[in-house]
Design goal:
Number of helices: 9
Helix content: 25-40%
Radius of gyration: 32 Å
CATH superfamily of the largest domain: Lipoprotein localisation LolA/LolB/LppX
CATH topology of the largest domain: outer membrane lipoprotein receptor (LolB), chain A
Mean pLDDT: 78
CATH class of the largest domain: Mainly Beta
Oligomer: single chain
Number of domains: 2
Shape: globular
Low-confidence stretches: 1-11, 24-28, 35-123
Strand content: 25-35%
Number of strands: 20
Length: about 425
């Protein structure tokens, strides 16, 4: 850095001395003066006549009924102003020892030579805005189906499928909270979080590849099938193949281009159905997806993930277990969280409870996606046993479409 010129020597200097010294320093041009002024104005935020501050991560934000655009705008504005605040701080630090009055002109050129003007970099918005976790309440009651529909409608938002991520709660916050020493893992908040994740898993992942198996023992019959699956949830495409205990592929499921195709390998028959991709989905609040109704209707269930048809039924039950959660866990008095463990390398909650018919329930839930990793149901009175388990799982990995080949197969035709 240049040594600053001591102006005190000019106090008693004659004009010859002043002229000799000033030969080394040229006057600041008008253009350079305007450039300095413009930089100072930009750095200080004087053009806006306000000081903006960088936002912080927000969760528990009550934005159930607000449109996504408002939340997105908040994040973008927050990030865009952060760089300005940083520059304002730097400007204040640099000007703390700046010479004043006559010294300003003498140091202006030095400042230009020492610092190369750089373009102001706008800091990207990285803070997320989360939905507020609804604490679970008993299902609302209606006297009629019409009344039940009106209640759900009042608490339902129509959202773009591609923007569903913006309706997440702060998973990291709650997952870490459940693992904190001293935290009550069976509090209303903790159970509400687990229930929310099971009923909204489709918000928390974009693709899944893996395997699962299940076991059913009913009235003396035993079944030990397994399945391999891959689903591109974002684009609502998928493929599954079901394998019996003899390792034969007995069924294949294809979903793409607004079609669902089921191929029966044993009979050589396939069937094709039209199923349009859901561009928009109805998204009710957690506490208003099921309404109790007086007889003879009994109840009304609104299931957002049920309109997404990219997974074969057993795969759908594991990856998007919304209806199973309603059936087994809606009554919080019937189940508890036993602890947090690791399953297939994923952080999971271990649940157990008793179903209304006396069946004993055990369930393992991925804390970060809401995927049901394991389900065991046993009824000692009836001898019924149902077990499902994910045996391998990769989340948010590239998925290549598998297309159906009808060669040599017969298409099933339905007639009225």
């Amino acid at each position: 850095m240049k040594k600053r010129f001591d102006l005190e020597i000019l106090e008693n200097a004659d004009m010859n001395t002043i002229d000799a010294l000033s030969d080394k320093y040229s006057a600041v041009s008008e253009a350079e003066t305007e450039n300095i002024f413009r930089r100072v104005m930009q750095n200080s935020g004087a053009a806006d006549e306000e000081l903006r501050v960088k936002g912080v991560e927000v969760y528990h934000r009550p934005v159930w009924k607000k449109l996504l655009a408002a939340a997105s705008a908040l994040v973008l504005v927050t990030g865009a102003t952060a760089g300005g605040v940083y520059l304002y701080r730097n400007f204040g630090a640099e000007t703390a020892d700046m010479p004043t009055d006559n010294a300003e002109e003498a140091t202006a050129e030095e400042h230009i030579e020492e610092e190369t003007p750089t373009e102001v970099q706008t800091e990207e918005a990285t803070e997320a805005v989360f939905m507020e976790l609804q604490l679970h309440e008993a299902a609302p009651y209606a006297e009629s189906m019409e009344e039940a529909k009106a209640i759900i409608e009042e608490h339902t938002t129509l959202i773009p499928w591609a923007d569903r991520h913006n309706y997440r709660v702060d998973v990291k916050h709650y997952a870490e909270l459940l693992q904190c020493e001293g935290y009550d893992i069976n509090s209303l908040e903790a159970k509400s979080f687990i229930y929310h994740m099971l009923r909204n898993s489709f918000l928390y992942f974009d693709s899944a590849v893996g395997t699962l198996n299940w076991y059913i023992n009913y009235e003396g019959s035993n079944f030990y099938p397994s399945a391999e699956f891959q689903i591109d949830l974002q684009n609502q495409e998928g493929y599954s193949k079901c394998i019996n205990e003899d390792n034969d592929v007995f069924l294949e499921f294809f979903a793409y281009d607004d079609k669902i195709i089921t191929k029966e390998n044993i009979s050589g028959i396939y069937q094709e159905e039209t199923c349009s991709k859901a561009e928009m989905i109805r998204f009710p609040e957690d506490n208003y997806r099921y309404i109790e109704i007086a007889p003879p209707d009994y109840g009304l269930n609104e299931c957002p993930s049920c309109s997404i048809n990219c997974a074969w039924n057993k795969v759908h039950d594991q990856l998007m277990p919304e209806e199973l959660a309603l059936a087994f866990l809606d009554n919080f008095d019937n189940w508890q969280i036993n602890g947090i463990s690791e399953y297939l390398g994923r952080t999971a909650a271990e649940l157990s409870g008793v179903y209304d018919d006396g069946s004993e329930l055990k369930m393992t839930v991925d804390l970060y996606t809401g995927i049901m990793l394991e389900l065991n149901i046993e009824n000692s009175d009836t001898g019924f046993v149902d077990k499902m388990a994910v045996t391998s799982l990769q989340i948010d990995v590239p998925v290549e479409r598998v297309e159906f080949d009808p060669s040599g197969l017969t298409k099933r035709i339905y007639t009225d």
